[in-house]
From TrEMBL, chain B:
Entry's family note: Belongs to the ABC transporter superfamily.
Record bears the keyword ATP-binding: yes
Name under which the protein is recorded: ABC transporter ATP-binding protein
CDD domains hit by this protein: ABC_Carb_Monos_I, ABC_Carb_Monos_II
Organism in which the protein naturally occurs: Mesorhizobium argentiipisi
ABC transporter domain ranges (all copies): 6-241, 258-505
PANTHER family, per the entry: CARBOHYDRATE TRANSPORT ATP-BINDING PROTEIN MG119-RELATED, GUANOSINE IMPORT ATP-BINDING PROTEIN NUPO
Source organism phylogeny: Bacteria, Pseudomonadati, Pseudomonadota, Alphaproteobacteria, Hyphomicrobiales
Length: 379, 510
């Protein structure tokens, strides 16, 4: 017989379980901190204060979160179509190329509010293009998307290295990066929002891309749950056979989903490139694409969850940097271990505590798990 | 009564909030065949899984041969002499019979002595119980009936004294089933104890000594088979009297709505699954296709509905040809009035992870009624879903509930409601009541007949002979990809059974 579904109420599913997973991750991380001879409670305080304690910290946290929202959404859109897009890293990198071309061409003649929309389109288009090729190979040739997107990450990296030490590098420069953009290609900061709440900010890269990320999160929600295309993507994602039965073209849906995923990945580059560094440098993505996988999984492929998970990872990045600075025994690598634990408990071991929580809910209140009590038991 | 081989006392098992088994008491006497019947989801398989160590009971006691035991894994069960033949065989397809039999019981690195020992032991078992199988045959080359025999041999090889069979005849022809029953009787005569799980009451009557009926997780009755009737058991199963045969009037066949000519379909391996099949379905009639599963019926349905490409042939829908070369799109055929209830509702007809309302538009999701531009018209979809829930008595009546949480019968009603409410000219239905409980079967049959009476052409494929005979105005029998015979609704089961088994139809007609 089929395994009966015991469904948890939404708040427990999306709230309680992630919180428990997170708590366990931090407890285990606490033991690791103890192991290197530091006080885990003080470490936790430093981490949280570093991320949220001061205005600058908050701004940095949200800046990192912005990046992760884009990559998390990118992974999630593909995942809803049961495509595991590992290529977010490369698609974001190539998205940066699109931005560079726009900014280097127009930054001396156009204001930011004209360049920004053009750059968005360019970033999305370049990212989508980098997603299109693996999608085509999957749809038409059956080449597995996981393999091809990983390979495309390497190709993207090689292409960018070539461009950044060659054609895109200003003559005479020693650094493998484009020239710095002029003011026309610099995005406005959002620090004033945090200052509204009375916090002080020295210098932080939080910029208008954060708002763009939130808008995209909403649009992704709309796409997945409220459009015909999203319906078709989810149908294919759950059951390719059902999609075939429903007359949904496999080729079209795979290519469309991967292009949207690639476009979101490409848009991630706007945040560091136009919002912070004002140039395109080698390896500016620095693993954000892979973090996006964790963010998407932890956010349970839902935009709201992804925004929250992205902020959590932003906190780990920012607070972790502070921690490494304050506690010399805790190196940068230790922070990576803590992040790894969060991914482990929130992503990979996501179902570890679920059965116990379900049993608990079932014994306390059967109705809450969406099951009718069997007649006559009085349960 | 003879000494009990198995006693289950006060067994309880819950999955989350679902109480699959409640206070089950069961006693099976040594050397008897004991049947357990019940609707899908009544808890039969759960109970046997507890006995075989797949699940642990939340409370209760198991006694084997009078001694209380604890069975935590299937190895414990095997050690206690309990063997199980699963509904879906647990065989390695590309291994030989011998290799499958020793799998998990190998004792040496090079297998040499294991194989030698197994060969002589198999030989003995085959002689003793009439279970002839070539020990060196590759499993995937054996017919299902023989594969099942290998499963039984596997259990006996491990020293099973108690044999549990879960829906053993689901995949067998009537003749194969008869053979199985002879084997089971022989095993019983040798002193083995057999527990037979099924929902086919006829089998219970034919072979068991005693029978227990389960309903909604409880054991509602145990009867001596000779002293009960099919009617009583059916009533106990569903808790009310059901119509085993639907009432229907004469069909008034009209114009040909679906015409299939010389259709040939190959599967992905290039094997011809449908071989030069021709037939017509007229408006106002139900044509039933009988046959043992795997004789090309599935591929036939898929080709007609545009899911699978055909190699050659011609299909006319309402007088206009369907493109069979691969350009036929199921969506386009739907627009032309062909509705399809697929055999596999779990993977094809429904997306189980979707909410009920989302499934109620699957395939029709590009219909203007459900859309506002590129967006889904959620209000319209919900209203439509509620309407269908009411019309088809889908329970629980909550369109926001995940489809996986509906019972098999209600899931099937979701598919039927979706396809029938489109008012199609032609309805093709695969396994209309597979895995559906008795109450819903009656409802579904009535709906299909109502479609017929409205002048629609209905094509039904089913492996349940009873269903085909009770629904159809004409019966086609498929064997090895070909239509081997056409009969009227009054054809006897024996006659159809012979056709299904591939015996030449001249013989069958006698």
């Amino acid at each position: 017989m089929s395994t009966p579904y015991a469904k948890l109420p939404a708040w427990a599913d999306y709230g309680l379980i992630p919180v428990i997973n997170l708590a366990v991750a931090f407890i285990v991380a606490g033991f690791v901190v103890m192991l290197v001879g530091e006080n885990p409670f003080r470490a936790a305080v430093i981490l949280v204060e570093g991320a949220f304690g001061k205005g600058t910290g908050i701004a940095f946290t949200l800046f990192y979160a912005t990046t992760f929202i884009f990559t998390g959404l990118s992974v999630a859109v593909a995942a809803h179509c049961s495509l595991f897009n590992i290529g977010t890293e490369g698609q974001a990198y190539i998205g940066g190329l699109g931005i560079a071309l726009v900014c280097l061409s127009f930054d001396s003649v156009l204001p930011w509010w004209v360049i920004f929309p053009i750059a968005i389109v360019a970033a999305a288009a370049f990212g989508a293009l980098w997603g299109l090729i693996p999608a085509y190979l999957q749809a038409k040739r059956g080449s597995h998307i996981v393999i091809t997107t990983i390979m495309f990450n390497f190709i993207a990296a090689s292409v960018m290295v070539y461009l950044l030490v060659g054609p895109l590098k200003p003559a005479g420069s020693q650094a493998p990066q484009t020239r710095n953009f002029l003011a026309g290609a610099e995005l406005p900061k959002l620090n004033w929002i945090i200052e509204l709440f009375g916090a002080k900010i020295r210098s932080a890269p939080l910029n208008i891309c954060f708002l763009l990320a939130l808008v995209m999160a909403f649009l992704v929600w709309l796409l997945i749950w409220r459009t015909r295309l999203g319906y078709e993507m989810r149908t294919y994602g759950h059951s390719p056979k059902a999609a075939r039965y429903a007359g949904i073209s496999e080729t079209r849906i795979i290519i469309t989903a991967m292009m949207i995923s690639g476009a979101l990945a490409g848009m991630m580059a706007l945040n560091p490139v136009m919002g912070d560094q004002h140039n395109v440098a080698i390896d500016f993505v620095s693993g954000a694409g892979y973090v996006g996988i964790a963010v998407a999984l932890m956010g349970r492929l839902h935009p709201v969850g992804i925004v929250l998970a992205a902020i959590l990872f932003g906190m780990l990045y920012q607070g972790g940097a502070e921690l490494a600075f304050e506690m010399p025994a805790i190196s940068r690598d230790m922070i990576v271990i803590i992040q790894g634990l969060v991914i482990l408990f929130a992503g990979a071991l996501e179902h570890m505590f679920r059965p116990y929580i379900q049993a608990l809910f079932a014994s306390v209140s059967p109705k809450s798990v969406g099951m009718q009590a069997v007649k006559g038991t009085g349960a | 009564m003879a000494q009990a081989a198995i006693e289950l006392i006060g067994i309880n098992k819950s999955f989350g909030a679902v109480r699959a088994n409640r206070d089950i008491n069961l006693e099976v006497a040594r050397g008897t065949i004991h049947g357990i019947v019940g609707e899908n989801g009544a808890g039969k398989s759960t109970l046997m899984s507890i006995l075989y160590g797949f699940y642990q009971a939340d409370s209760g006691e198991i006694r084997v041969g009078g001694k209380p035991v604890s069975i935590n894994t299937s190895n414990d069960a095997i050690a206690l002499g309990i063997g199980m033949v699963h509904q879906h065989f647990m065989l390695v397809d590309n291994f030989t019979v011998l290799e499958n039999v020793i799998l998990g019981a190998e004792n040496d690195v090079l297998l040499k002595s294991s194989i030698a020992k197994a060969r002589s032991e198999l030989d003995r078992l085959e002689r003793e119980y009439g279970l002839e199988v070539d020990p060196d045959a590759i499993i995937e080359e054996l017919p299902v009936g023989l594969q099942q025999r290998v499963e039984i041999l596997k259990a006996l090889y491990r020293g099973a004294e108690i044999l549990i069979l879960d829906e053993p005849t689901g995949v067998l022809t009537p003749a194969e089933a008869d053979h199985l029953f002879r084997i089971l009787k022989q095993l019983k005569d040798q002193g083995k104890t057999i527990v037979l799980i099924t929902h086919k009451l006829r089998e219970i009557m034919a072979i068991t000594d005693t029978v227990s009926v389960m309903r909604q997780g409880t054991m509602v009755a145990t009867r001596v088979t000779k002293e009960t009737t099919v009617g009583e058991l059916a009533e106990l199963m569903v808790g009310r009297r059901v119509l085993l045969r639907v009432e229907k009037g004469q069909s008034e066949a009209g114009a040909v709505k679906l015409s299939v000519k010389n259709l040939t379909v190959k599967d992905s391996r290039g094997v011809t699954m449908v071989d030069n099949v021709s037939f017509d379905v007229r408006g106002g009639e139900i044509v039933g296709i009988a046959g043992v599963a795997g004789n090309g019926q599935s591929e036939l349905l898929e080709a007609i509905s545009g899911i699978r490409h055909a190699v050659s042939g011609e299909v006319m829908l309402e007088g206009k040809p369907i493109d069979l070369t691969g350009k036929a799109d199921p969506g386009e055929l739907r627009d032309r009035g062909l509705a399809h209830v697929p055999e596999d509702r779990h993977h094809v007809g429904l997306v189980l992870a979707f909410e009920e309302n989302e499934n109620s538009i699957l395939g029709y999701h590009d219909d203007e009624r459900y859309l506002k531009g590129p967006f889904l018209d959620v209000d319209a979809i919900m209203a439509d879903a509620k309407d269908k829930i009411e019309k088809y008595d889908i329970r629980p009546g909550n369109p926001r509930l995940k489809t996986a949480n509906f019972s098999g019968g209600n899931q099937q009603k979701i598919v039927l409601a979706r396809e029938m409410e489109q008012d199609p000219g032609v309805l093709i239905v695969g396994q209309p009541t597979r895995g559906v409980d008795v109450g819903a079967i009656e409802f579904i049959h009535k709906r299909l007949i109502a479609m017929r009476d409205q002048g629609k052409a209905v094509l039904v494929v089913s492996v349940e002979l009873d269903e085909i005979r009770s629904l159809s105005d004409r019966i086609l029998v498929m064997f090895a990809g070909r239509v081997v015979g056409e009969r009227g609704p009054d054809a006897t089961e024996g006659e159809l059974g012979l056709l299904m088994a591939g015996v030449e139809h001249q013989e069958a007609a006698e």
